[in-house]
Design a protein that fits this description.
The protein is of the alpha+beta class and 390 residues long. The protein is built from four helices and 24 strands. The protein has helices at 2-38, 106-141, 147-179, 375-380, and strands spanning 42-44, 49-51, 53-59, 62-69, 72-76, 81-86, 93-94, 99-103, 182-184, 189-194, 201-202, 207-212, 217-224, 236-241, 248-256, 266-273, 285-290, 293-300, 306-308, 311-318, 321-332, 339-343, 350-352, 365-367. A six-stranded antiparallel β-sheet has the order 3-18-22-21-20-19, with no helix packed on it. The longest helix has 37 residues, at 2-38. It is rod-shaped, with a radius of gyration of 43 Å.
Length: 390
Amino acid sequence: MLRKTLFVLAIASALAACGKESKDPGKGGKNAKEQAGASVNLLVSPEDLLTIQSNALASGPVITGSVQPERNADLRAEVSAVVIQVMKENGEIVKRGDVLVRLDETAIRDSLNSAEEASRASSQVLEQSERMFQRMKTLRASGMTSTQALEDAEIRRNNAQSDLSAAKSRAAQARQQLQRTLVRAPFDGIVSERKVSNGDTAQIGKELIKVIDPTSMRLEGLVSADKIGVVKVGQPVLFRINGYPGQDFAGKVRRVDPAANAVTRQVAVLVDFNDKEQPRVAGLYAEGRIETETISALMIPDSALVKAGDVTYTWKVKDKALHKVNLRIGARDVRTGQWEVQSGLASGDTVLRTPGSTFKDGQKVELTAGKAVPAAAMASSSAVVAGKGN
């Protein structure tokens, strides 16, 4: 019985040992992988590194607004008529004097013909009245007619003159109205908005078509009233326009309104473009900064920053290892797209230009010799990171 019991215990011990061995090798394999992963070095080239330096940072109040043309015309109907034809569509280029909209001229032309006919009749009546008046003057001089008859002839002559002037005025007005049935472009530009179609009834004052001059764009912006004290005419302005990503525009302050908006407490500021290169679309949102002063600050490009919620950090390379450094970021320089570093880095620190998502704090870094990479390629490529021994 004892021998049988010992045999059973031996079998149980053997099974337990086998289970432990089968479990331990798995655990040992996992630890080996972790140790191997911890020992992997990052291979980075010099082009993947960036040295933090101090640069000039322009500071000043923020300006927001929209790009609007200085020359724009909202053409309206000056006569009541039916729209016969719209000659231009949105986006089409027009020259000064081009016909944009044709209105029905039938009734106005009839009025013109009637006024011209009345003018001719009044002219004949005036000629007859003038001859009669001159005859009566001659007869009165010889005593063959009375003074009353002469005065009556003069009155008829004067009335005929008045009738002729009125008829000519009506004809001129009708001729002017006839010209207004052709709506013409007041300057060279582009049709920005067509507001009527063929067959519409255009009352006086109805909006027909809008023309803008795309070469006269300017920024119509707003600045907070508590910052307006440092804004002066002629100060440089740097801003970006929605729809033109990555492109910076430069301008200067032309005018500062003397009164703030009673509701928003913002002051309107007009900014001219410095360059001839301007957006060709009106109404685009723009945001920038008026450069009222310039300071020296540590700057870092946006590509070197990693944002996780409210935390912004970067990967600093020091003592051949990666170190995760939390940063406090300040203003953005719209000229370069870089951000001001208020804390977390010092001048001369080296960081990864385009960090990846698999880096670990304390991971070893090995610098490799590499060929120079063009600036365009660096802007579009990520850091070259490889696992040593993979």
